[in-house]
Amino acid sequence: MPAQAIASAGVACILGAMSAESLMTQMRKSRNLSLEDVAAAVQTDQANLSRVEKGRQIPKRQLARRLFEYYGGRVPLAAIYDPEFFALQNDG
C-alpha cells in the first residue's frame, strides 16, 4: 500500500474516533438531558459544556469535579479531561 494511502487511512481513523460521542455525551443523552440541563446543574454555560464534551476544551478542576459528582462517578475524570484519549484507550 502506498505511503499516501496509509497516511489517508490513518487520518480517517483519527477523524472517526473524534466524531464518536464522548462518554459524557452518551451519559447525558441516556438520561434524556439537554446540554442546558447539565450546564445549569454544574454551573457552567451550554457552549462551555459542549466544548468539554467534544474534547475541544479542557475543563478547569472545579468543573471537572462537578461533572464527576453530577454523573455519580460513572464518568471517570479521564473521560472528562480528555474524552478522545479515553475513548481510544477503552475501544475494544
Key traits:
mainly alpha; 7 helices; single chain; 434 Repressor (Amino-terminal Domain); 92 residues
In short:
With 92 residues, this protein is an all-alpha fold. It contains 7 helices and no strands. It has one domain: lambda repressor-like DNA-binding domains (434 Repressor (Amino-terminal Domain), Orthogonal Bundle), CATH 1.10.260.40.
How would you sum up this structure, described in words?
The chain has helices at 3-19, 23-30, 35-41, 46-53, 61-70, 77-81, 83-89. By secondary structure, the protein is mainly alpha-helical. Helix 3 (35-41) packs across helix 4. It has one domain: lambda repressor-like DNA-binding domains (434 Repressor (Amino-terminal Domain)), CATH 1.10.260.40.
Secondary structure elements and pairings:
Blueprint: H1 3-19, H2 23-30, H3 35-41, H4 46-53, H5 61-70, H6 77-81, H7 83-89
Helix pairs in contact: 3-4
Mean pLDDT across every amino acid position: 81
For the secondary structure, the number of strands is 0
Could you name the CATH topology? 434 Repressor (Amino-terminal Domain)
Tally of discrete structural domains: 1
Largest β sheet strand count, sense and barrel closure:
none
The number of helical runs is 7
End-to-end separation in angstroms reads 25 Å
The radius of gyration computed from the alpha-carbon positions, rounded to a whole number of angstroms, is 15 Å
Give the proportion of residues in helices.
55-70%
Shape verdict:
globular
Percentage of β-strand residues: under 5%
Could you give the order of the helices and strands? HHHHHHH
Q: Which architecture name does CATH use?
A: Orthogonal Bundle
The helix/strand class is mainly alpha
The CATH superfamily turns out to be lambda repressor-like DNA-binding domains
CATH class: Mainly Alpha
